[in-house]
Amino acid sequence: MYPKLFEIGPVPVYSYGLMLGIGFLIANALFTKELKRNKFDEGIGPTVTFIALIAGLLGSKFFYILEEWNFGNGVSFSALLKPDILFSPSGLTFYGGLICAIICLIVYCKIKKIPVLKLFDMIAPGAVLAYGIARIGCHLSGDGDYGIAVNGTMWEFLGYSYVNGTVPTAPGELVHPTPLYELTVAVLIFLFLWNIRTKIKFTGEVFAFYLILTGLSRLLVEFIRLNPLVVFGLSQAQLISIGMIIFGIILFVIKRNNQVLNPDYNN
């Protein structure tokens, strides 16, 4: 495990933070390419990426604190607000960041009079790839995003030890390396979205597929992860995933029907 890769003077460079940064840079490059292809002002690229980055980090940390407060075995809310937790590169909840980023970008679109779904269509491929790259950081740091133990099961050949991670596994314990699973699926979803982006029939189609596919992948991987169950034997992430899938399907059906009824409709 390599939670800390190296130091630049007194400043440590953590694997998760580095991978997250690389992911956002790649997402920004892809988004800028899409802005150019769709004849939008390329100058909004860095602004949108910056909003998504800051809102994503704040939302991720906020949801993490809420999760730990609710399921943290008696951990007080004030204890979770200590600087070593607030400013730690670990302790980030993806869906919190996604929801916060979406809300902030909708506000930005309304202010700048940019079509919301058109913007999300252009962002979606890069966003899912950035998520996959960030999971490399989770794997390198061993930050607890791994899955259940596989010792003595048919999946033992896939097992990985995070004994030296920031949230270490027990010595000799092998677990599902779920960050690598998520990386693989994220790359496949990216390739699909990148391929269909030039063939869509209505605005919002790419974003609808993004919601459905990323929601489905997270729903499934949660069955072999260690997150606490909330209701009906499902984790909080799974409940949000189901909501994403349903919203994505509704968005797809409504926009497709509008296109069928009015071929000139593309909002």
Secondary structure layout:
Blueprint: E1 4-8, E2 11-14, H1 15-37, H2 44-71, H3 83-86, H4 94-112, H5 116-141, H6 178-196, H7 205-221, E3 229-231, E4 234-235, H8 236-261
Antiparallel strand pairs: 1-2, 3-4
Helical residue percent band: 55-70%
How many individual helices? Answer: 8
Give the C-alpha Rg.
19 Å
Compute the separation of the termini in Å.
Answer: 47 Å
Give the low-pLDDT segments: 83-87
Structural category: mainly alpha
Give me the count of strands. 4
Shape verdict: globular
| Largest sheet strand order | 1-2
Order of helices and strands: EEHHHHHHHEEH
Main β-sheet, in a few words?
A: 2 strands, antiparallel
Beta-strand proportion: 5-15%
Mean pLDDT: 86
Describe this structure as you would to a colleague:
This protein has helices at 15-37, 44-71, 83-86, 94-112, 116-141, 178-196, 205-221, 236-261, and strands spanning 4-8, 11-14, 229-231, 234-235. The chain starts with a strand and ends in a 6-residue tail after the last helix. A hairpin with a 2-residue loop joins strand 1 (4-8) and strand 2. Helix content is 61%, strand content 5%. The radius of gyration is 19 Å and the shape is globular. It has eight helices and four strands. The protein has a two-stranded antiparallel ribbon. It has a two-stranded antiparallel ribbon with strand order 3-4.
Keywords:
single chain, 267 residues, mainly alpha, two-stranded antiparallel ribbon, 8 helices
Summarize the structure.
The chain has 267 residues and is mainly alpha-helical. The chain is built from eight helices and four strands.
